[in-house]
Amino acid sequence: MTDDVERYRSPERVPAVPCHGGGRISLTESERGALVSRWWQTLATSCRLSIPERQARELLGHVVDELASGADADLFDVAMGARVVDAWMVAGLAHPVVPTAAEQVQCRLAEHCRPTVAARRVAGLLAAAGRGCRAQRHRLHDPGPHAVDSAERQASRVVEERFRIVFNNAAMAIAIADTAGTLLDANPGLASMIGVPIDTLRGTSIYRFAHPDYHDDIRTLIFGTVVAARAGTAKLEQRFIRADGSSGWASFAITYVEGSAGQADYLLAVGADVTEQRRLQEELHRQARHDVLTGLPNRRHLLERIEALTATSADRDRVGVCFVDLDGFKQINDRYGHAIGDQLLVAVATRLRDSLPVGKGMIARIGGDEFVVLVAPPADELRVTAIADRLLSALAAPIVIGEYELRMSASIGAVTTVAEAPAAALLEAADRALYHAKTRGKGQWVLRVLDVSSRPNWRRASV
């Protein structure tokens, strides 16, 4: 047995595991030992082993290295599955908990990866181990001068059974489909994610529960790439439709697996429900682009919108900006305190936002008492000045905060120019117009008209 273990020994190294940020997290000796111990405890409490504990731990350590080496590669080595299965067979580790624990170890090695990457790692493990299982079965059933005995044939059947247990008990959603996209089998994880019995999945198209918006992606990534090449793994994050009609997000890795011993090629899909992760990502995206106090878009969001308009506007389209600065806000803040000041800002933000025609502009808070309204094309002088008038009128009535009745006005620097103007130049021009408005008194706007072929033209109005 020692010779068999030594024959299996993998290269002496402590592999690195790809992490979420694209760097690497080293698998320390302590972490490696913890994985081996966890695996050994599962075996020791679940089945009778035919080899001593020391040799079993040593073998499991080599398997952990093998799996980590697989996790370290973009594509799993086809021979890795055969080596792992061969090691189990040699050591007499025929109990079904062996591959189940292997799947858990692989999940641990991939837990620092993005969901798509983790799914690809586990898919690679199952596909490679499946190849190894079939190769082992073919070797045991191949008649020849080195025919094997019935005990080994029984062990081969147990190998197949153990992979069925992995399939049924894996934490991730797993499906097997033919190369035309018809589901041949699915595990409880996938059935639970969609909310249907397993039997209803078998024989259905992989498009059935995919959101229609992602059918083209499936055709391109799976059939146009992986199936066409008869190799590789496609990574896909898409919306899916549950049985109750609701939708969620799933991350899948779909691997092309070559058949052997007369079996047809097939697709192995491993994935997970990432709806909650997607929701958190969207919330973080929203928070990064919105002001915490007022809920309005912030400077970052504003700049992105300006850049988007610049990229999609026609040559002669014009864009407008109204740079709003509150008159005397610092004095109110100093007199009544920051709590009242914050409530006043929220009230002002609401009034300014509600004064805009629906779909005609976006308002952002870019500083303490500074707001910017972006006017999308067509933004000629008449339209921009009309919006500036609406903004000033929105602040004409007193604002009641608790026991205080506060009056607030604003100065506005407005600009209209060709939509190709850079965001920084647009805001700078509006800021200069705001300076002129401030020097002329409160509650006024100043419009600056910028054209490529003419000098700036100034207009002045007050409310």
UniProtKB/TrEMBL annotation:
Alphabetized Pfam families for the sequence: GGDEF (PF00990), PAS_4 (PF08448)
Superkingdom: Bacteria
Domain GGDEF residues, every copy: 317-450
SUPFAM superfamilies, A to Z: Nucleotide cyclase, PYP-like sensor domain (PAS domain)
Domain PAS, first and last residues per copy: 159-230
InterPro entries (alphabetical): Biofilm_reg_signaling (IPR052155), GGDEF_dom (IPR000160), Nucleotide_cyclase (IPR029787), PAC (IPR001610), PAS (IPR000014), PAS-assoc_C (IPR000700), PAS-like_dom_sf (IPR035965), PAS_4 (IPR013656)
Domain (PAC) ranges: 234-286
Protein name: Diguanylate cyclase
Organism, as annotated: Nocardia aurantiaca
